[in-house]
Specification:
alpha/beta, 43% helix, 228 residues, five-stranded mixed sheet, single chain
């Protein structure tokens, strides 16, 4: 309950209505939402597509890194299972008091972005993805897009109309300008590939956040909406 109260300035009625709205949406789009433990997604976790960094930034925020180019098109992977892995990472983060208070920073790395992924950019997929993003109970989310390309411009033209206006205000494009990124996320917690001071990410250690909280995640995923 606290995550929703903090998200909505401790307005109980507004928070309760938001909870009902979110769980109703989950009931209507079950295929988009995770209900399984991290062990069921080891194949995707081992691709190193998504991960939360070990340390917080200077504002006390968790930093979520999404590497679009690491999606292996030749494996049994779909947009729903990728969405489930997002749920695992983000639900674990949203249960943390410090994260509930400070919010989240997301680095979207477009290095290696493939034209094949365009098949997922259907209007229905974009609407559901946007709604899931809107439902995240962080006080603020900043998106930092790096390693961009000409292909990304076509994607942006498709995605932007489906994004909430408040979300658009918090999207920043850096390409490979690491000093620009460091104005928002201090380099002490970033890997060297983003101009940071950490040689590389230890994904096996980062995944401990999921496995250590597996029971709590399963309890969260068991909650649902009942139309009375």
């Amino acid at each position: 309950m606290l995550r929703y109260l903090r998200w909505l300035d401790f307005d109980p009625e507004l928070a309760f209505n938001k909870i009902k709205d979110i769980y109703k949406f989950r009931a209507q789009t079950k295929e988009w939402h995770c209900c399984s433990p991290p062990s069921e997604y080891e194949d995707i976790l081992e691709m190193h597509i998504q991960a939360i960094l070990a340390d917080r930034d200077s504002r006390g925020r968790r930093v979520y890194v999404v590497k679009i180019g690491n999606i292996d098109d030749n494996k049994d992977i779909n947009i729903y299972r990728l969405s489930h892995v997002d749920d695992l990472w983000l639900e674990a983060a949203m249960e943390e008091e410090e994260t509930q208070k400070n919010g989240l920073a997301v680095i979207v790395d477009m290095e290696g972005y493939s034209l094949k992924l365009f098949r997922w950019l259907t209007p229905q997929n974009l609407r559901n993805s946007s709604r899931k993003l809107y439902n995240l109970s962080f006080p603020q989310i900043d998106f930092h897009v790096v390693n961009t390309s000409a292909l990304l411009n076509a994607t942006i033209a498709l995605v932007y109309p489906f994004l909430d206006s408040k979300v658009k205000e918090h999207i920043h494009f850096h390409n490979r300008d690491w000093p620009s990124l460091h104005k928002y996320i201090n380099p002490e917690i970033l890997p060297a590939e983003y101009g940071g001071q950490i040689p590389s990410l230890d994904y096996a250690k980062l995944r401990a956040l999921l496995y250590d909280n597996s029971d709590q995640l399963m309890e969260l995923f068991s909650m649902g909406y009942v139309n009375t």
